[in-house]
Amino acid sequence: MSDLVQVNNLCVDYITFGGRVRAVDDVSFSIKKGEILGLAGESGCGKSTIAFALMRLHRPPALISEGEILFDGKDILDFSDEELRKFRWADTSMVFQSAMSCLNPVKTIESQFYDIFEAHNVVSTKEEGAERAKELLQIVDIPPERLYDYPHQFSGGMRQRVVIAMALALKPKLLIMDEPTTALDVVVQREILQKVYELKEEFGFSVLFITHDLSLMVEFCDRIGIMYSGKLVEVAPSKEILGKPQHPYSFGLGNSFPTLHGELQEMIGIPGSPLDLNHVPDGCRFAERCFNASEQCRTDEPQLRNDEARGWVACHHPLAIDFRELQDAPCSELN
Amino acid sequence: MQTHVPVTSDQKITLEANDLCIDFAKERKSIFSPKQYLRALNGLNFKMYESRCLAVVGESGCGKSTAARIATKIYNPSSGQVKFRGQDITEIESGQALRDYRKDVQMVFQDPFGSLNPLHTIRYHLSRPLKIYHGLAKGSELEDRLVGLLEQVGLTPARDVLSKFPHQLSGGQRQRVFLAKTLAIGANVILADEPTSMLDVSIRIGVLNLMSQMKQEMGKSFMYITHDIATARYFAEDTVVLYCGHMVEWGSTEEITQNPQHPYTQLLLAAVPDPKRSIHQKLPTHRALETPMWSPDKTGCPYAARCPQAKPACSEYLPEAKEIAPQHYVRCHLFM
Ligand SMILES: Nc1ncnc2c1ncn2[C@@H]1O[C@H](COP(=O)(O)OP(=O)(O)OP(=O)(O)O)[C@@H](O)[C@H]1O
Ligand SMILES: Nc1ncnc2c1ncn2[C@@H]1O[C@H](COP(=O)(O)OP(=O)(O)OP(=O)(O)O)[C@@H](O)[C@H]1O
Ligand code: SF4
Ligand SMILES: [Mg+2]
Ligand SMILES: [Mg+2]
């Protein structure tokens, strides 16, 4: 698979009264064609900031101060307003946590679809727009006759489906989903994500999926990037993030989600609390909470390195335990 | 980890609910339309024990918080009763008995920001209950208690924390302070309504572990309201699954999570994210309808409209509870 998106050394700052806060610091990753990449990490680690930057939807006080975002080889940071207008929806679209914030409460679904089609000159008449919109509603399992309803006439789960149908309206190559199901019940959540997966298989788009629910992410994503206070600290195939974590923070996150099946293990989570971005220490940002920290960790900042055998990780002392083997072995314990 | 333990005969019941129902008047479209009621809870029964936790799980709006609000006397049930150590709590109306009840039964909320007064230091929050309930006004005894409380909830160095204001602490630390406050008050029954859902994921387990410790080492009796069933399995011995105000399945958490029998519980558990599964995990068939709103005049099983196995009887009357295995009850026509 080739890369659809390549993010290189991206830095995003927020300019605040207290000074400049670097919310995304020197982050690089790629998304392959047809791949679902997850971004996980605690609140405030910069996930949404990256999502907005990928759409170039970031607004002051956010500022992209360094880096490039290559989409199909072209740097979207160089795009003109006209190029950007075409790029959004047609190449990349985004679904947020709250469907209501993407939908206009005083317009019918039909006219909101029409606005998208019209802005991109893909339909010439209202009828044609309605036809296409009905097809789109159908692919997310909403009866086409509901096209003429207003957003408040739908349940939360249906609204999120409508938003997904709109996001797919122009057959984008990348769908960004920022906590798309956090406000929904688990049954609806699974149904929606299964639908997105099916559509992805059918149309071949890529997905950037953001959530703080690591269990869900492991189920849904091909690869997962773990962020800690503005830094990408590990990228690995999703099953390995839990089974063979290399970064102590990934290990700690994995150790924060009890499982529904299998033997109950005592979990430890991660001691301490997340970093205040106004006071970033020298060295590794995770050092204060890390069980493996050495003197070096407190002075030198670890760089994200790619080691063919192990994947991407930014840590001076990456872990080398395979918990999958441990768990399968008789009489072995995690702790 | 040990949450799979049956109730023993020497464990004391703390709170107990018998056939609780509560109706809320719906907003009327006009003054001429007839008064309508929403039945938020229909026939809730549970027993809570010392040193045990009862998880109440179910989707949004199923009545979880309402159950806790009845138990803390914020709402009065329309019928049925809650007993505390054998006494009907509606009889506790004023005076010392009410103060004792308020001291003994405490709620912990989702939002650790809202539950502490931003204008007061942590010292103030903890010393007030020590003074009011235990007559500890000042001196080294008070100091020792304050430090001891903060150490018990894992907030160290305690002396630094005492002089801080709530906004100077993280969400997890604030939730710990709040738990320290329930300890200061001396509560024995703690009703925790989604106590970790607003916290950062890495510190949720720490708060759950702290509550486990309060449960195991201090004998506290917990109700844990959550929609995160995996954490219920981690923390609670007993579980009630609510659907639309009705108990559909209840008993030992391990039984419910590993061997769910009610069609709704099966659907719910199949949908819970689990890293050992894949997103393709098939959900049991169900009709994709919205959860109905219950009202006092409705009959039958609340899940009947969505249930693929529904029989005619299902929409006619609600079946009795049936013990299908030790410590495992369902209310479903399929088991009659
Ligand atoms: N408008 C803003 N002004 C100043 N700082 C901001 C602004 N928006 C975000 N930040 C800061 O940037 C950092 C990253 O925020 P971001 O919203 O990307 O986090 P996130 O990972 O999406 O978190 P969450 O899981 O809570 O959605 C945070 O520390 C936040 O405080
Ligand atoms: N004071 C009230 N007046 C009217 N209706 C109410 C009141 N309190 C709760 N309800 C209704 O009772 C039902 C149960 O509400 P409750 O808050 O107990 O749900 P919940 O299970 O805690 O949901 P969530 O997971 O969203 O917190 C809902 O339909 C709610 O709208
Ligand atoms: S670099 Fe050091 S402190 Fe940072 S995560 Fe690795 S071991 Fe821990
Ligand atoms: Mg975000
Ligand atoms: Mg609630």
UniProtKB/TrEMBL annotation, chain A:
Gene3D superfamilies: P-loop containing nucleotide triphosphate hydrolases. The keyword DNA-binding does not apply. Keywords: ATP-binding, Nucleotide-binding, Transport. The keyword Methyltransferase does not apply. Residues 5-254 form the ABC transporter domain. GO terms for molecular function: ATP binding; ATP hydrolysis activity. InterPro entries: AAA+_ATPase, ABC_transporter-like_ATP-bd, ABC_transporter-like_CS, Oligopep_ABC_C, P-loop_NTPase. This is ABC transporter ATP-binding protein. It comes from Alginatibacterium sediminis.
UniProtKB/TrEMBL annotation, chain B:
It holds the Pfam family ABC_tran. Keywords: ATP-binding, Nucleotide-binding, Transport. PANTHER family: ABC TRANSPORTER, ATP-BINDING PROTEIN (PTHR43776:SF8), TRANSPORT ATP-BINDING PROTEIN (PTHR43776). GO terms for molecular function: ATP binding; ATP hydrolysis activity. SMART domains: AAA. It comes from Alginatibacterium sediminis. One of its GO terms (biological process) is peptide transport. Residues 22-269 form the ABC transporter domain. This is ABC transporter ATP-binding protein.
